């Protein structure tokens, strides 16, 4: 029997849905909700790991192990192919990048994107970004490609060069990354729809559009992005932002009112939770085990 490849599943999803909607899942529970909603691929944001799992800003503080913990929890329960943000590769050398790639594959990820910012990175939609040389970014991609233990695992190159060096330089970097073996391109913080078209025409590999809220990129629709030949559309933290706002509202209401009665209607019910995580199937197995023990 052929061994399952998460990377092959991701590539298949890109071919079958145009453009492929890739939605952020901050944890395993959200991965299941995303699958239930009909998405064919999911995403783990580095900024989401930092803010959600660690309570820290997205400034290159989180480690490979921090991200792998969340990757494993997601892939343990959800079979949707997972794209993972690995920042700059979690280290300054090719050995670090290689370790990151091998670990991602071992933990069940389907794809990763690695960027051309310096180690002390920032959110792609914040000012003050600094990027490494084009050659250093090419070396990161080469190290990642060489380290693959599954040829189908997707290496996506993200460039933040638009805000630093301009569009032509960003496209030039993307082309160099494709030549080095990158399977897909992630041009970060694009400000116009036409920019995606220029990337797609130049690189000849699938291009991802990051449609994050409150950033530099307008909230283009899938139809608009399809017209610009975008192959993947990313919504990295949409549910996370909504979850945080909902939690804040509940905490404030309980503190203010001395009861949760006024916000119960905004909550997922106990039965809805049980349904979403398949609780009853687990309980039935437990009941069967108890019944078997009692019959002895």
Structure description:
By secondary structure, the chain is an alpha/beta fold. It is 50% helix and 11% strand. It is built from 13 helices and eight strands. The chain has helices at 6-16, 28-36, 46-54, 64-77, 94-106, 134-147, 162-165, 167-179, 193-203, 222-227, 238-257, 270-277, 279-294, and strands at residues 20-24, 42-44, 82-85, 111-115, 154-159, 184-187, 208-210, 232-235. It has an eight-stranded parallel beta sheet with strand order 6-5-4-3-2-1-8-7, with helices on both faces. Strand 3, helix 5 and strand 4 (111-115) form a beta-alpha-beta unit. Helix 5 packs across helix 6 (134-147) and helix 8 packs parallel to helix 9. The longest helix has 20 residues, at 238-257. The model has no long low-confidence stretch (mean pLDDT 95).
SSE-based structural type: alpha/beta
Please indicate the percent range of residues in DSSP E strands (runs of 2 or more).
5-15%
Q: Mean of the pLDDT scores?
A: 95
| Apparent shape | globular
**Oligomer classification:** single chain
Strand adjacency order, main sheet: 6-5-4-3-2-1-8-7
- Element-level helix/strand string: HEHEHHEHEHEHHEHEHEHHH
Could you give the count of β-strands? 8
The biggest sheet amounts to: 8 strands, parallel
Give start-end ranges of low-pLDDT stretches: none
Q: What is the helix fraction of residues, given as a range?
A: 40-55%
Instruction: Give the N-to-C terminal Cα separation.
Output: 38 Å
- Using only C-alpha atoms, the radius of gyration works out to 21 Å
Number of helices: 13
Task: List key phrases describing it.
11% strand; alpha/beta; 50% helix; 296 residues; single chain
């Amino acid at each position: 029997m052929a061994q399952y490849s998460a990377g092959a599943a991701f590539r298949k999803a890109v071919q079958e849905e145009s453009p492929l909607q890739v939605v952020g899942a901050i944890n395993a529970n959200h991965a299941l909700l995303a699958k239930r909603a009909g998405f064919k691929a999911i995403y783990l944001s580095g900024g989401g790991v930092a803010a959600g799992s660690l309570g820290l800003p997205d400034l290159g503080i989180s480690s490979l192990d921090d991200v792998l913990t969340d990757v494993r929890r997601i892939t343990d329960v959800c079979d949707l192919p997972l794209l993972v943000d690995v920042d700059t590769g979690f280290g300054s050398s090719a050995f670090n990048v290689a370790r990151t790639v091998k670990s991602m594959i071992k933990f069940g990820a389907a794809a990763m994107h690695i960027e051309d910012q310096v180690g002390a990175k920032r959110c792609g939609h914040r000012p003050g970004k600094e990027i490494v040389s084009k050659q250093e970014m090419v070396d990161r991609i080469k190290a990642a490609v060489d380290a693959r233990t599954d040829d189908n695992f997707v290496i996506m190159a993200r460039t933040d060069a638009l805000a630093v060096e301009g569009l032509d330089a960003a496209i030039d970097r993307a082309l160099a990354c494709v030549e080095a073996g990158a399977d897909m391109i992630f041009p970060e913080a694009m400000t116009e729809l036409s920019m995606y078209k220029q990337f797609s025409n130049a690189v000849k590999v699938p291009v991802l559009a990051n449609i994050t809220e409150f950033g530099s990129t307008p909230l283009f629709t899938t139809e608009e992005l399809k017209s610009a030949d975008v192959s993947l559309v990313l919504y990295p933290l949409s549910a996370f932002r909504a979850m945080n706002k909902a939690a804040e509202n509940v905490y404030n209401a309980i503190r203010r009112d001395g009861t949760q009665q006024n916000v119960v209607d905004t909550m997922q019910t106990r039965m809805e939770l049980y349904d979403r995580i398949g609780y009853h199937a687990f309980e039935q197995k437990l009941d069967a085990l108890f019944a078997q023990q009692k019959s002895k």
